[in-house]
Amino acid sequence: MDGEGIVFLTSCFEIKFISTMINTVFKDGLFEGKVALVTGGGTGIGLRTARELAQLGATVVLASRKEDIVKQAAESIVAEGGKAIGLPCNIREPESIKACVDDVLQQFGKIDYLVNNGGGQFPSPAEMIQPKGWHAVIETNLTGTFLLTQEVFNRTMQKNGGSVVNVVADMRNGFPMMAHTGAARAGVENLTKTLANEWGRYGVRINSVMPGTINSSGLNRYDPTFKEFIFGYGKFNQTFRLGTEGEVAAGIIFLLSPAAAFVTGVNLAVDGGQSIYHPLFPPEENTKNEVWE
Length: 293
Fold this sequence. Notes:
Layout: E1 35-39, H1 44-55, E2 59-64, H2 67-79, E3 83-88, H3 94-108, E4 113-116, H4 131-160, E5 162-167, H5 179-199, E6 204-211, H6 224-231, H7 245-256, E7 267-270
Parallel strand pairs: 1-2, 1-4, 2-3, 4-5, 5-6, 6-7
Helix pairs in contact: 1-7, 3-4, 4-5
């Protein structure tokens, strides 16, 4: 795909559910009475996080520009015994953001947790990215994250407090073939720190999670050659494998939870040590590393 287009990785895939219970290390009822809004919640990391939040007692609102996908996902969470609804929300459009937040507050009266997981990008050498593609990625990943977070803060969290987790990407050493999303996600990491400083006085904690290379449904949208390249990235972290959606969800849920009550403004790397790769101690395959699905 050239730089004129944009692949939205959070709302374009067939949803398959394996079981009605998922792994969690958190106690039953941890989020009872809480309301969580998860963007990009119809598939991948967003859906895995939403399912676990619902299993732990939260009422979960799944939001995406693809209404049919999030409604299907919400129905499946309800079938698993959770409380969930799906709402349309295009985070590139302020009026769509406002309508989504309006709907949540009318139905539930508050938003305790916000997970900014929605986003999109496409692989391309930097010299080939066209202005249309650049702006689409920046507007989705950076501007959309800010506008939704601002709306939620102004409408409910400023009065009631809350916790926000922004899902970024492994861009500490640059993001070759993804210059647009690397720039946008780095902006979100800085925004996380800024808002944590400005809004801490209102009882709002804001953190980010930086996934490494994750074996997620989002990979299915890439060209087979690029997908094969991504799968090979498992050899560049100390676990010598790709991460799972469940491992990223666990990090998100920890930062939302009371266990992280004294944690704000941090960027948690969930990457198996990919961000500390050093050629003096290259990763080696082993059978001792635990995998959390």
